[in-house]
Each structure stands twice: as C-alpha cells, then as structure tokens.
Amino acid sequence: MGEFSHIDKDGKANMVDVGDKTPQIREAKATGIIQLEPRTIELIKENALKKGDVLTIAEIAGIQAAKKTSDLIPLCHTLQITKAEVKCTIVENGVQANTRVKCIGQTGVEMEALTAASVALLTVYDMCKAVDKSMTIVGITLLEKTKIDIK
C-alpha cells in the first residue's frame, strides 16, 4: 500500500503539487440514488411539489457543485472544467443522479463528479423533505475515471 499523498512527512495536511505533471484530458463519472416513497416519486413525475421542477433543479445544483468542489474539499485543486453533465432520472425506488465531469488538466476530476452527484441528490432531498420523511441517499460511487494524453 502506498503512502498518502495529502500528508507531509510530519503527518500534516499537504496539497499535492501537480505543477510538473503534463496536462491531459481527464474525465470522471459518478452515480448515486436517493430512495423515496412511491407517493414522492409520483409528485416529482407530476411536477407537483411546491418548490418546483425537482429533477431540473437538482441537475443545475449538481453542475454548480462540480464547479465549486475546490471550495468545499480543502485539498482539491481548482480546475478549469470543460464539461459538467448531471442527469437525474426517476428509477424504481427513487431518483438516480449520473454525472460526468471533464477537464484538461494535471489532476483528475473524480471529486468533482462525486460532489456533483452528492449535491444533486441533496437538492432532491431538500425539495422533497416536506412530503417524505424517510428519504435515504445511497450508493454514491465513482464509476469511472480516465485520462488521455493530449496530442
């Protein structure tokens, strides 16, 4: 098992220096689900919640979160994101958020993809909390991360 890159020789927090790394096209995909009561799912489908269009607002929130990840996670680098995509869909037991974040840079965008999924689902939670007291967010996970050399 390797050493932790975010800890210095004295065990203190350390932001990794990626300055010597060659920029690459980097992409990450993440997902998660918020489990909802059947009636809540119907209200979302009918666009009948007082706060508005749950899925669209959650998608926008996820995109905003991807762009603000370095403000939320202390040792994340600020990245120039070239694409942030969040798709929220109704599934059998709730809403699933699927995210894809892309940049050209010296470090990956997996934290941005995971943050986008998390905040999209938290937005669903916020918009539905008045009607569903049993919501549970589960399965937030990184699906894939890639890097491609720039030609």
Automatic annotation (TrEMBL):
Residues 15-147 form the Molybdopterin cofactor biosynthesis C (MoaC) domain. It catalyses: (8S)-3',8-cyclo-7,8-dihydroguanosine 5'-triphosphate = cyclic pyranopterin phosphate + diphosphate. Keywords: Lyase, Molybdenum cofactor biosynthesis. Pathway: Cofactor biosynthesis; molybdopterin biosynthesis. InterPro entries: MoaC (IPR023045), MoaC_bact/euk (IPR047594), MoaC_sf (IPR036522), MoCo_biosynth_MoaA/MoaC (IPR050105), Mopterin_CF_biosynth-C_dom (IPR002820). PANTHER family: MOLYBDOPTERIN COFACTOR SYNTHESIS PROTEIN A (PTHR22960). Gene3D superfamilies: Molybdopterin cofactor biosynthesis C (MoaC) domain. The lineage of its organism: Bacteria, Pseudomonadati, Bacteroidota, Bacteroidia, Marinilabiliales. One of its GO terms (molecular function) is cyclic pyranopterin monophosphate synthase activity. CDD domains: MoaC_PE. Catalyzes the conversion of (8S)-3',8-cyclo-7,8-dihydroguanosine 5'-triphosphate to cyclic pyranopterin monophosphate (cPMP). This is cyclic pyranopterin monophosphate synthase. Its EC number is 4.6.1.17. The gene is moaC. The keyword Lyase applies.
